[in-house]
């Protein structure tokens, strides 16, 4: 009896101790600043590499160091089959999707620019005539997120902490900073090519902070462009790329051939945006990001801060030289080293293990169509002007009007709905006849009318991606998707993106740091899952238009 009592007593004591320990742990679980609350990192850093195909993680693997991409994959969790699930795959929709957790059908960012039926003019995704430039007098400062229809994960973090969290977003491209920052960022900064400075607008503030002014006064871009762009390694080691003097590559203005070395000091005299078109644009961006860390004391407050960094230069370089160029390979070898340096800066300033970082891309890119054709892969350049002329003649002949077509490009055709109504024509019937014509055009894979897409019936394949990219108020009367390998591009060299195929949709997603277990998954993941994953990790609400789901292999704990 005595032995039984002792066993029960010990068992009861153990339960009480376990209960007390658990309760104590729960009560003492604090955020990094020391106040009682959710368990969150001191800082979240979002890194978006503009035009980074997934295969770039491994294509140059043998020449990467240990502190950049390899560190992310070694210490972090990688989603190996992550895709955008809408079209078009452009910069603005990509950044919006990453941070809103939804697609253009909901967040309204249907392209970088689109035709506005009400004004009958093209509109740019972040242009805002109601705000004034700050740090410049040029139109490059008249920008804001007012066309974004939903909140972002950065907005929700600000809401969750009653605005005590700081959100700073930056990129050379205005849209690469403004859309990630959302509606409630403390600041978004972008590059003004007229002054070669970092600027913002009165949407965020009335004057630049002192730390930004000091950074601008250093004229960092000028110092980065005073030398030639030489390859980081001996050029013979760039075996993953085509020859340096390739017919598929574009030249800098003032060059006679697209070859190394690129004499930047000379080229800058006629190109105010040159910093963007070189890998030193990434250097410039990371330097400014480090200045923001110190200037805003990010990760030092009582709540979690958020730094959104978009690296725009790989997109400019990819557009000019194409995915198989030595220039692109050199850009990623340099980026790998600079990423490692930036992660080391986070270790020093915020503390190893105290920050959460994720890296992804806003879209990929296709091989140059002429390159594909020369290597026996079906491809082609789409003739947008010919499509416009053909449509005008068809509509004039069919409906006796030469003003039924308002705007046309390779993926969007807008009709004059007012005139269609005045003529008592059926909008759906006119759309349908345009679809029939466009579907037979060389290079077209799929054409769907706005009436079809607006019904929101369950669709498969490319049609489902077109549907998720379709916004009822903003999108075109006819949406078009080209065949694989085809490209609508204003020059025949370099490359572009925007398609529904894996070369444009497949991008990296890697999480590393606070609360992340190392590993990988080959399960299908959507880029719109990034924001709800962050929402779970940060214990905040999803952005209000979220259609993605948290990535379970990241958020679940054993």
Computed Rg: 26 Å
Per DSSP E runs of 2 or more residues, the count of β-strands stands at: 20
Mean pLDDT: 93
Strand order of the largest sheet: 5-8-7-6-11-1-12-19-2-20
Can you tell me the overall shape?
Answer: globular
Question: What are the segments in which pLDDT stays under 50 over at least 5 consecutive residues?
Answer: 1-30
Secondary structure class reads alpha/beta
Strand content: 15-25%
Tally of individual helices: 22
Largest sheet: 10 strands, mixed
Bin the helical content: 25-40%
Termini Cα gap: 40 Å
Any chance you could write out the topology, listing elements then pairs?
Blueprint: H1 2-28, E1 43-49, H2 56-59, H3 69-75, E2 77-83, H4 91-100, H5 104-107, E3 113-116, E4 121-124, E5 133-134, H6 153-160, E6 167-171, H7 174-181, E7 187-192, E8 197-201, H8 210-217, H9 220-224, E9 228-229, E10 262-263, H10 264-267, H11 280-295, E11 305-311, H12 313-321, H13 326-351, E12 355-361, H14 369-374, E13 380-381, H15 384-399, E14 405-408, E15 412-415, H16 417-422, H17 427-439, E16 444-449, H18 450-454, H19 461-468, E17 478-482, E18 486-487, H20 502-505, E19 509-513, E20 519-526, H21 530-538, H22 552-555
Parallel strand pairs: 1-11, 1-12, 2-20, 6-7, 6-11, 13-18
Antiparallel strand pairs: 2-19, 3-4, 5-8, 7-8, 9-10, 12-19, 14-15, 15-17, 16-17
């Amino acid at each position: 009896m005595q032995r039984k009592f002792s066993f029960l007593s010990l068992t009861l004591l153990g339960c009480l101790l376990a209960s007390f320990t658990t309760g104590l742990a729960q009560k003492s679980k604090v955020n990094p600043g020391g106040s009682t609350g959710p368990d969150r990192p001191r800082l979240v850093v979002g890194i978006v590499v503009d035009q980074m195909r997934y295969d770039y993680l491994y294509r140059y693997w043998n020449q990467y160091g240990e502190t950049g991409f390899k560190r992310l994959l070694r210490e972090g969790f990688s989603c190996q089959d992550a895709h955008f699930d809408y079209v078009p795959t452009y910069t603005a929709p990509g950044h919006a999707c990453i941070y809103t957790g939804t697609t253009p059908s909901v967040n309204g960012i249907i392209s970088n620019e689109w035709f506005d039926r009400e004004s009958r003019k093209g509109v740019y995704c972040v242009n805002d005539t109601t705000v004034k430039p700050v740090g410049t007098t040029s139109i490059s400062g008249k920008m804001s997120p007012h066309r974004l229809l939903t909140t972002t994960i950065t907005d929700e973090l600000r809401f969750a902490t009653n605005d005590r969290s700081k959100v700073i977003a930056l990129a050379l491209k205005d849209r690469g900073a403004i859309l990630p920052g959302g509606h409630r960022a403390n600041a978004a900064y972008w590059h003004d090519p007229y002054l070669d400075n970092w600027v913002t607008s009165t949407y965020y503030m009335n004057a630049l902070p002192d730390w930004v002014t000091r950074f601008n006064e250093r004229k960092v871009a000028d110092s980065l462009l005073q030398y030639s762009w030489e390859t980081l390694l001996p050029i013979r080691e760039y075996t993953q790329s085509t020859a340096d003097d390739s017919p598929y590559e574009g030249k800098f203005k003032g060059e006679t051939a697209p070859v190394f070395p690129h004499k930047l000091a000379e080229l800058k005299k006629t190109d105010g945006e040159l910093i963007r078109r070189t890998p030193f644009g990434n250097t410039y961006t990371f330097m400014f990001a480090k200045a923001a860390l110190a200037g805003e004391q990010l990760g030092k407050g009582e709540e979690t801060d958020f730094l959104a960094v978009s690296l725009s230069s790989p997109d400019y370089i990819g557009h000019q030289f194409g995915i198989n160029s030595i220039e692109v390979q050199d850009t990623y070898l340099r980026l790998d080293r600079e990423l490692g340096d930036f992660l080391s800066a986070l270790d020093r300033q915020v503390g190893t293990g105290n920050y959460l970082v994720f890296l992804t891309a806003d879209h990929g890119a296709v091989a140059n169509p002429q390159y594909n054709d020369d290597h026996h892969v079906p491809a082609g350049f789409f003739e947008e002007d010919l499509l416009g002329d053909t449509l005008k003649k068809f509509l004039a002949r069919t409906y006796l009007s030469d003003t039924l077509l308002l705007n046309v490009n390779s993926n969007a055709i807008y009709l004059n709905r007012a005139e269609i109504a005045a003529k008592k024509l059926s909008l759906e019937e006119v759309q349908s006849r345009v679809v029939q014509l466009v579907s037979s055009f060389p290079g077209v894979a799929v054409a769907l009318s706005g009436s079809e897409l607006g019904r929101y019936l369950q669709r498969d394949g490319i049609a489902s991606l077109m549907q998720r990219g379709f916004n009822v108020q903003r999108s075109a009367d006819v949406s078009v998707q080209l065949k694989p390998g085809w490209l609508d591009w204003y020059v025949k060299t370099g490359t572009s993106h925007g398609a529904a195929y894996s070369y444009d949709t497949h991008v990296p997603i890697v999480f590393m740091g606070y609360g992340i277990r190392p590993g990988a998954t080959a399960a299908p993941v959507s880029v719109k899952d990034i924001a709800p994953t962050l929402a779970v990790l940060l214990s905040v609400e999803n952005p209000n238009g979220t259609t993605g789901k948290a990535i379970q292999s990241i958020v679940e704990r054993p």
